[in-house]
From TrEMBL:
Xref: Pfam families: DUF6082
Family matches, as InterPro entries: DUF6082
Organism: Asanoa ferruginea
Phylogenetic placement of the source organism: Bacteria, Bacillati, Actinomycetota, Actinomycetes, Micromonosporales
Keyword entries, A-Z: Membrane, Transmembrane, Transmembrane helix
Protein name: Phage abortive infection protein
Transmembrane segments: 20-43, 63-82
Length: 248
């Protein structure tokens, strides 16, 4: 909620409170004037100031006092009611402001994370394009060609995870995406080779930790299918990826 809207609401409530106050003061004033007028009329009807007339005037002021007390009580009740309404409205506005701040913080976090991942992509792309820069990164495998493939596999996984993180994905979409990625033998090899490294850096209960757990299950599922559905190695036409895809 924007600050101008909050200011307009506060001004509207203040104006409404002022209107109620003016109405109450006007009611009390009218009651007092009516009582005084009634007393004057009663006193004016008597030829002389007898005790009976004074008694009637006293009774009139007693009625006036009761009316004034009732109006005062009504004013107190209305005041408390308006204060309660004002407090409830302020709490609602504070809740809206808190929700807005939380949403803004989450959006800024996602934006900063996307920028950081984009920088990571650029760094990995530089190492893929330049073998000398690739040597700067920790070597997971000895072969430079395989090392570049691992880096590219990492980019693919990071890109897919970022797509999931910024969208409302379902469990079925997550499983489908991971099964598609791990149909690649190189991605499965990269995932298995770097498992120990991931376990050292992942934060428990984070998004990456949850995604890693699901990815480990999918990768293990593929490896199990490869072992149980592998035909005779002498058969030249066997394709491991196709067999796994059909079994899945």
């Amino acid at each position: 909620m924007s600050e101008p809207m909050i200011g307009e609401r506060a001004f509207s409530r203040a104006r409404r409170l002022l209107s109620w106050t003016i109405l109450l003061l006007a009611g009390v004033s009218v009651a007092l004037l009516a009582g005084l007028a009634a007393s004057g009329m009663i006193a004016g009807t008597a030829p002389d100031e007898t005790w009976a007339v004074r008694a009637n005037v006293g009774e009139t002021f007693g009625v006036l006092n009761a009316i004034f007390s009732g109006l005062a009580l009504a004013a107190v009740v209305v005041t408390f009611w308006m204060q309660f309404t004002e407090l409830r409205s302020q709490r609602a506005e504070l809740a809206l402001q808190r929700d807005s701040l939380i949403q803004t913080k989450a959006e800024l976090h996602r934006s900063a994370e996307a920028d950081l991942r984009h920088l990571h992509f650029d760094l990995v792309q530089l190492s893929i394009a330049d073998p000398e820069l690739a040597q700067v990164w920790p070597q997971v495998v000895g072969s430079p060609a395989r090392h570049r493939q691992y880096q590219y596999a990492n980019l693919i996984i990071q890109h897919s995870w970022l797509q999931l993180k910024i969208s409302d994905y379902t469990e079925a979409e997550l499983q489908s995406m991971l099964r598609y990625l791990f149909s690649s033998p190189i991605i499965r090899e990269y995932w298995t080779t770097t498992k120990e490294f991931r376990q050292r850096i992942l934060v428990t209960d984070s998004f990456e930790h949850r995604m890693t757990a699901v990815a480990d299950e999918v990768c293990s599922e593929y490896e199990h299918l490869l072992r149980t559905h592998r035909p005779d190695p002498a058969t030249p036409a066997w394709n491991g990826t196709a067999e796994v895809a059909e079994a899945a």
